[in-house]
Amino acid sequence: MAEQQDLLYLDYAASTPVDARVAQAMSALMTSAGSYANPSSTHAAGRQSVGHIARAADQLAGLLNTRAERLIWTSGATESDNLAILGGAHYRRDRGRHLVSMRTEHKAVTDSFSELERQAFDVTWLDPEANGVLDIARFEAALRDDTQLVSIMHVNNETGVIQDIEKIGAICREREILFHVDAAQSVGKLLIDLDALPVDLMSMTAHKVYGPKGIGALYIADRPGVHVDPLLFGGGQQHRLRPGTLPSQQIVGFGAAADIARSRMHEDLERLAALRDRFWSGVHDLPGILLNGDIDNSFPGILNVSIEDIEGESLLLALEPLCVATGSACNSASQEPSYVLRALGRSDALAQSAVRFSFGRPTSLMDVDFAVEHYRNAVDKLRRIAPGHAA
Amino acid sequence: MSTDPYSKRVRDLFDVPAHAGSLDGASTVEVSDQGVRVRLYAAVVDAEIRALRFQAWGCPHTIAAAEAFCAGYEGRPVVDLLDFSVSDLMQSLSVPVEKTGRILVIEDAVRSLGSEAGAISIPDD
After folding, report:
1. Is residue B68 included in any domain, yes or no?
2. How far is CA B91 from CA A331, B11, B65, B100, in A?
3. What residues of A act catalytically?
């Protein structure tokens, strides 16, 4: 296996390195010289921790143009999704049992809805169009009088496709339907104005945006009927919606990461678009290559490609030392192709050959050129090995 | 504990599959099953395997196993194909048990190749 120093990491949609300034802000709170006190304590040291948390909340709220008190800290986007969907559906169970989501959502969302199906809720699973985008007319047609909750992700984690959460949210608001957005891939990367967007609940996480793992947040709009039942019990923290000692150093890290993201979002987006376009222009002429998603309506940090007549697991090994994500959830046992790409209409074989390249702040043009060369070589090698190739 | 799903030998064989390719005029078999496609070529002279080549569409273990087979059986009597053991191959490559089905495709291909190349009588199981 390639050594750490030889690896070329192109999996920033999975996680990002902690920004050095974020790490510095966090470490200042973790030792005896810092503000390590439990923020629930009423003494002076505890109040210092509260102050740090309040500042971080302001930083994250500033990134999203909302108020700090609308944010609930969680352990990450998975918990936020669970709290929003399970907690939201339970809180509003008297309004109806019908829920709507998409087949291309993250597992944290689909599994939460599956749990609600086991609890006798009725879920409509919408398929996207071939380019990954949800058709608004089809969405509207799926709504019923008893629909009480809709969850649609902002940026798809596999394809980067952006859904029109403004339009979807407006339709939900007209009908008094709770609207949740999984924004794990978009917070800190795309401009989000929660003061203007018709979004009731939004899930987010720090580690996708150069913050630490283990901290996320759920935005809950200040609107009548918008609330969630808690999933955890055991303390009075965060209005009893999410009890437990607040991890102040993680929260401070998220706040610092949000601040940095806000200051360089435009620059990041321009760079990522240049990297993505350079990669695609370097591989698009390969016979049988297909782009999964819609390059004109995507977050530019993610590019997902399938290729005909190539086996996914072998492709991934041949691509080393590139660290990329396969479109297959395959381990040796299941070899199950990506359900997201299957929902886009890709065959099992094409879904299994898919590779997600995701670029980040440390990615250089040289990295992209190396990745292009390596991808082309890997495809060429595997095609030469495959039956039917004329030696 | 190693987190690498591939043994060093699998990586080496996958990286440099020296026997990947085809042989003109050689005995040829192709077996497709378990999401794997394997084609084997054998050039046999006087009941001796002079050259083996493979083409494979499958996971790294499949490709490594095909390469290991070819490397191990060149120069041997064609009758030795009868002794080909998938369990030995799986052990030597540390193939996870859940991939047994895929490696068995190679066993099927080797047995067919034996019949094709040397008219070997292979008893039914």
Report:
1. yes
2. 19, 15, 11, 11
3. 330
What chain A holds in terms of domains, given with CATH numbers, is 4-16+264-385 (3.90.1150.10), 20-260 (3.40.640.10)
Question: Taking a C-beta distance cutoff of 8 angstroms, is the pair A68, A206 a contact?
Answer: no
Domain assignment of residue B43, yes or no: yes
pLDDT digits (tens, 9 = 90+) for A59-105: 999 999 999 999 999 999 999 999 999 999 999 999 999 999 999 99
Q: Encode pLDDT of A229-287 as tens digits.
A: 999 999 888 999 999 999 999 999 999 999 999 999 999 999 999 999 999 999 999 99
- What pLDDT, in 10s, does the model give residues B58-81? 999 999 999 999 999 999 999 888
Domain assignment present for residue B122? The answer is no
Q: Which tokens is A45 given?
A: 């040291």
Whichever domain contains B14, its CATH number is: 3.90.1010.10
Whether B61 has its CB under 8 Å from any CB of chain A: the answer is: yes
Cα gap A171→A240, rounded to integer Å:
31
**CB distance from A391 to chain B under 8 Å?**
yes
* Count of domains for chain B: 1
Percent residues over pLDDT 70 in chain A: 96
> What is the tens place of the pLDDT at every residue in A280-306?
999 999 999 999 999 999 999 999 999
In a domain, B18, yes or no: yes
Q: What is the pLDDT of residue B57?
A: 95
pLDDT tens digits, B106-117: 999 999 998 888
Q: Which of A26, A85, A49 is nearest to A252 (CA)?
A: A26
| Residue A2 at interface with chain B, using a CB cutoff of 8 Å | no
With an 8 Å Cβ cutoff, are A332 and B53 in contact?
A: no
Query: Distance of CA B54 to CAs A11, A222, A384, A388, A389, Å?
Result: 34, 65, 11, 11, 11
The DSSP bridge partners found for residue A358 are A11, A302
Residue ranges making up the domain that contains B13: 8-117
Residue B79 has phi, psi (to 5 degrees) of -65, -20
In chain B, which residue's Cα lies nearest the Cα of A317?
Answer: B60
Tell me the mean pLDDT in the region A350-356: 94
Q: Which of A311, A319, A353 to mutate to test the interface with B (most CBs of B within 10 A)?
A: A311
**How would you label B27-54 residue by residue, b for 16+ Cβ within 10 Å and e otherwise?**
bbbebeebbbbbbbbbbbeeeebebbbb
Nearest CA to A301 out of A182, A206, A203, A209 is that of: A209
pTM attached to this predicted model: 0.92
Locate the DSSP E strands across B8-93.
Answer: 27-33, 36-45, 48-57
Residues in A closer than 8 angstroms to B56, CB to CB, are 385-387
User: Is A314 part of the contact surface with chain B (CB cutoff 8 Å)?
Assistant: yes
